[in-house]
Model the fold of this input.
Amino acid sequence: MNRFLFGLLATVLLAASAQARDTRHMFPVQDALTTGEAKAKLDPKIKLYFGDAPHPKVMRDFGEFTSNKKTNAFNKSDRVACEWAFLSAMLSFQ
Done:
């Protein structure tokens, strides 16, 4: 019985520390696109348009795609981690 209570207590205490943060931030897309990494890796011939931005007539539709890229945020600010994941997603679309 004593072992059971100890195991239950350990499980409860360790489970609380395993919860992930669920903070939502809104960062400008333009800031991520103007970083040095983005300028070095993204193909400038492929134009990117977001939201309701005006764009030329669509010549060929390739369909709709989604991305669920993640990054290791260790030793990175939330902004840098978000920009890194965004850049990774943009590279996968190119």
About this structure: The chain has four helices and no strands. The chain has a mean pLDDT of 88. Helices lie at 2-17, 29-33, 36-41, 78-93.
